[in-house]
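Practice problem: predict the structure.
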Amino acid sequence: MCNHVAVQFNRGIGIGAGVGHTLLGDRARPRRSSWAIIRRVAGIFRPYRLSVLGLLATVTASALIGLAPPLLFARVIDNISKTKDAGQVDVDAALIFLAVVAGALLSVLQSFLNNRVGQGVMYDVRNRLYAHLQKMSLRFFTSTRSGEILSRLNNDVSGIQDAVTNSFTSVYSNLIIVVTTVVLMAFLDWRLTIIALAALPLFIVPTRIVGNVQRRLLARTQERLGDMN
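Answer:
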């Protein structure tokens, strides 16, 4: 019966089992496919789809503009050392300045949209979570520790907020930067690009190891926070 109560609680908030630990432990966690969780998350973001599209466009534009200064600096150096075209150097310097200003403005817009989406989603999640708690039976509150409920309300939702406002944007931005940088490197010199990409496993493997350790520590921290409350 306790397992059934935990399953109903997770279903009611509309997020799925992928967020945080269940109130009654891992054994009570309902099994859902990744696509089911993605559909639930997409439903939460649906009211903010225009802001999300604007955020993605802003991140993409910022990443692309970030490639301009290095190319322009290279052209300035070539002009100074070879052609000595002072007029072209002035034009390139002005373009570098404009690229930096545009990048700064896009960063401000990105921060605004990021916080708008993140805070809006968290507002909706907290309201849905609170409304669902009001519908739970007395058996749920007598069979579940109050500390675990508080941990779900405070710590787990804060973890969602961090994922929405920071992790998602960082992952997408880094993906765009990596793709555009690799394309640019291949355009400039494909041989050096292959050498650079060959060294990637030296960075990916340690990152995955550290990430797995962090996930285990985070899960343990959430459990300890539930015990403390």
